[in-house]
Amino acid sequence: MVVYNPNDATLQRDPYPTYEALRNEQPVYHNPDLDFYALSRHADVAAVWRDSQGVYSSDHGVTLEQWSPDARRSMSFLAMDPPDHTAVRGLISRAFTPGRIHRLEPRIRELARTYATTAIEQGSFDFITGFAARVPVDVISELIGVPAADRPMLLRLSQQIIQRDDLTGRLTAGVRQANLELHTYYRQLITERRRQPQDDLATALLEAELDGRRLQDADVAATLMLLGVAGNETTIKLIGTAWRLAWTHPDLREQIWTGRIPVRAWAEETLRFEGPSQYTMRRTTRSLTLHGVTIPQDARVLLVIAAANRDDRAFPDADRYDPRRDTSQTLAFGLGPHFCLGASLARLEAAVVLEELVSAVEVNYDIDPAGVRWAGSPSIRGLVTLPTTVKPRG
Length: 394
Ligand code: HEM
Fold this sequence. Notes:
By secondary structure, this protein is of the alpha+beta class. The protein has one domain: CATH 1.10.630.10. The chain has helices at residues 16-25, 42-50, 72-75, 84-95, 98-102, 105-122, 127-132, 134-144, 151-162, 173-195, 201-207, 217-248, 250-257, 263-274, 305-308, 343-360, and strands at 28-31, 36-39, 56-57, 124-126, 280-284, 288-290, 293-295, 300-303, 366-367, 373-377, 380-385, 387-389. It is globular and about 60 Å long. Bound molecules: protoporphyrin IX containing FE. Residues 62, 77-78, 89, 140, 226-227, 230-231, 234-235, 238, 275-277, 280, 305, 332-334, 338, 340-342, 345-346 line the site of protoporphyrin IX containing FE. Keywords: Heme, Iron, Metal-binding, Monooxygenase, Oxidoreductase. One of its GO terms (molecular function) is steroid hydroxylase activity.
């Protein structure tokens, strides 16, 4: 019998056997204690995201821990449905244009090069804290307008929110406190930007207008929090996992380092094979029957993204890590109206950071397996320590 509890901390190390059992044995799994349903097959997860019938709502948030009728207060438009979602996302997308993202590339490269140089001089360092965490926090902070002096605090708070060992299924006092501190910080930033506008995303969000409508300060603060946390932790974890997977696959690593496998394909397959997003969640607005199981109205339905990305029905031999495969059906960034707003930024950051490493570091780098530790929140999984030793590329 399958038992799936996303709050179980032991799942962090290797959730994939559980995901396989879900897909094959109980494609609609019901957990009676936590009272949720879980969908794990690619086609089922994709169908919920596309939701052509309007059956699924995000209005109670997208995690079990934060399930609440006023989730939008802390999760912004991630916890809204159309038409509100369409309007608010429309406003934010205006400030978050592909042009704005594209213009970041030289700066991302400069940051990656600087941090890579420092790390290589050390030779042995923790890949996550000593390298991977540096670029995303700088990039999102520069985009939002968070001054350099405040960034360590931003990183600390977003880690407190995401990286924890106490997966109790409830938001602990520490996590609540971190959320509150972050919210207060962004409210202050907004007040400053109202007084003195700058060329940054915080100001752009305050000024963005659609059909005469503007965002309230509370919505801007929630959005900045969403971007700050989503933008940091997921991307850090993607870069860290890519580094480990290339190490465990020396043949592929050789091909990446000699340019036969593009770095972007390496990042893309990492997202599919071991991407950071484990699940998201929806509420049913009416009852429905799927694979013979009736899901009632107002049920919590988990879309187990990381399970769907290992479904053989969508990806032949899905448990094989192979950056040469077709990853176009990946669900790592979601689908439909809530498709990850930061997907192009995350892809760009990962590609640039990994490219800089490939050009600066010898192919035969090492990892100390004893120091490898996985952790995260129940919905985001990744490495928190990854001791590595590198030599400069000759
Ligand atoms: C939404 C994954 C990076 C901002 C999402 C969703 C997923 C996802 C699966 C859909 C959630 C749902 O449907 O309930 C990821 C992964 C990332 C990443 C795997 C990195 C590897 C980023 C970055 C940013 C960002 C860098 C911003 C700077 C957002 C926002 C949404 C979102 C704002 C909500 C979109 C909406 O509700 O319309 N992300 N994300 N993400 N992501 Fe990302």
